[in-house]
């Protein structure tokens, strides 16, 4: 398709965050502007299905993300009829959860019926069956319609957002890379040059640019927005695996589990993560490496690495070694469990994806380009940080819906009023981004302690905190973004 020469909003990046921004704008345009408003979404990937089938990437969607998607992205009529899922242990998972129709009206409903709904999480110490901190979502999220963490592969989240974008009459124009940006001050529009392998160069003049082009954002670089960042010293590894007994560990009471949950386990070497995914897959991750593993970091730099520097993933055997360090996988621990005791229930029998990466943490100095006030950054383009708590993608989607609404609400405003609204959006989102960056940094430091004395002190502190349920309640509310609701926001619990 030939691209327009002039648009009202150009969204650069058709990842989850760019699509959420585009959906918010189109879904909330006033009736009288719908026919004339021009929005263009471009992505350098030629194919929209650029995340390989086996890769899950970000897998946990939080309560606040569902609240903003329900409020701003779902079709308003569907939203009114939607039934709440408060207190539900799980939604029925569709037979073929990975396949998504071409168009959807309710992003929230489509995601909820395709993901595993986690109602609890725990912090554990390896070798101790009882979690030191047990977190129950429903009691912490009383005032939200969405009281679960939805575990769903990013590929499926993207397919659902794409289907919503299609239903709103738009799509992602693939194969176009942003290569130049010319700013013309506050009054002039922004001129963006796109380049296509086969179709050559194309200039688009736009009133506003949404930079949602990931951790290595070209929009950020071309607009001269500073992005100080640091790299974590140690790499992390992760893998999606299946184990010999698909009920392991969640149905093994001797391991301290009473049903499906997710969380971190601290061990001598660092920490390990376990999260369930649809189809009996488990996400395992750790901040320590097997002894015989050379990650070859920096050899491969993923084109959409979102701030990660990737190397070669560990093998199934190496991942098994890692899992064995933080969670018992053998039969001795399975007292009370049923099944064949001669087998290791937690033995990894299949691994569809493994990777190793270094995490950067940083945040752009300003989410809004100050010279023109016509270029904003959202998602990984604005912030990258540790995956603790799985907050990156959630924060990005929340940036996207709030920016989309600020743009729509100021369509008819004077240039000055729009500037003021956008600046206050940018300040607010940066404040939240900075808070997440600091929190995830602190959590990473605590989780990756290597000194045995410091580990002991940390574990004592966690045990102490367990006596104060309000602490874990606050941790959940922070992690799920509920504490970042705008002042005065009222939840819609009508259908609860
Ligand atoms: C291997 C891996 C594992 C991860 N695991 C987790 C996890 O467990 N938990 C978690 O929270 N997060 C995880 N993340 C991070 C998560 O995937 C990102 O936070 C999320 O993708 C951010 O979405 P985004 O839309 O901002 O950016 P992206 O998903 O990076 O999308 C940016 C889009 O912009 C396009 N683009 C880039 N440059 C240009 C250009 N010049 N012109 C046009 N288009 C351009 C890209 O093609 C891409 O489609 C992981 C990331 C990776 C790579």
TrEMBL record:
Organism superkingdom: Eukaryota
Name of the molecule in the record: FAD/NAD(P)-binding domain-containing protein
Species of the source: Violaceomyces palustris
């Amino acid at each position: 398709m030939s691209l327009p020469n002039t648009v009202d909003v150009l969204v650069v990046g058709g990842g989850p965050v760019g699509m959420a921004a585009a959906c918010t704008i189109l879904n909330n345009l006033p009736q009288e502007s719908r026919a004339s408003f021009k929005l263009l979404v471009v992505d350098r990937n030629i194919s929209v299905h650029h995340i390989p089938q086996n890769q899950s990437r970000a897998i946990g969607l939080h309560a606040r993300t569902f609240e903003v998607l329900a409020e701003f992205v779902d079709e308003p009529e569907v939203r009114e009829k939607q039934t709440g899922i408060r207190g539900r242990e799980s939604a029925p998972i569709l037979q073929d959860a990975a396949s998504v129709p071409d168009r959807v009206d309710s992003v929230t409903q489509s995601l909820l019926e395709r993901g595993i709904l986690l109602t609890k999480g725990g912090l554990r110490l390896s070798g101790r069956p009882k979690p030191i901190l047990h977190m129950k979502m429903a009691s912490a999220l009383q005032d939200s319609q969405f009281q679960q963490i939805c575990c769903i592969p990013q590929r499926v989240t993207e397919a659902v957002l794409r289907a919503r974008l299609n239903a709103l009459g738009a799509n992602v124009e693939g194969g176009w890379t942003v290569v130049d940006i010319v700013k013309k001050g506050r009054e002039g529009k922004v001129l963006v040059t796109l380049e296509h392998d086969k179709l050559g160069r194309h200039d688009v003049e736009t009133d506003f640019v949404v930079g949602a082009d990931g951790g290595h954002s070209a929009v950020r670089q071309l607009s001269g927005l500073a992005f100080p960042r640091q790299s974590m010293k140690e790499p992390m590894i992760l893998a999606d695996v299946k184990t010999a007994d698909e009920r392991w560990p969640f149905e093994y009471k001797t391991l301290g589990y009473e049903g499906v949950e997710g969380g971190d386990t601290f061990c001598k070497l660092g920490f390990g993560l376990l999260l369930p995914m649809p189809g009996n897959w488990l996400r395992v991750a750790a901040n320590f490496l097997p002894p015989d593993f050379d990650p070859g970091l920096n050899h491969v730099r993923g084109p959409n690495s979102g701030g990660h520097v990737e190397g070669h993933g560990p093998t199934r055997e190496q991942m098994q070694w890692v899992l064995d360090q933080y969670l018992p996988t053998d039969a001795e621990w399975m007292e009370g469990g049923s099944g064949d005791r001669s087998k290791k229930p937690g033995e990894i029998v299949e691994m569809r994806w493994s990777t190793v990466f270094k995490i950067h943490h940083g945040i752009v100095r300003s989410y809004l380009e100050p010279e023109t006030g016509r270029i904003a950054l959202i998602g990984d383009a604005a912030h990258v940080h540790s995956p603790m708590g799985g907050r990156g993608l959630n924060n990005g989607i929340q940036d996207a819906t709030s920016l989309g609404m600020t743009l729509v609400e100021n369509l008819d405003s004077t240039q000055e009023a729009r500037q003021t609204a956008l600046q206050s959006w940018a300040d607010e989102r940066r404040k939240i981004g900075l808070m997440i960056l600091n929190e995830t940094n602190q959590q990473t430091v605590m989780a990756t302690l290597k000194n045995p004395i410091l580990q002991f002190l940390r574990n004592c502190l966690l045990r102490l905190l367990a006596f104060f349920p309000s602490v874990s309640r606050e941790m959940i509310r922070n992690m799920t973004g509920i504490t970042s609701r705008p002042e005065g926001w009222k939840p819609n619990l009508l259908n609860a």
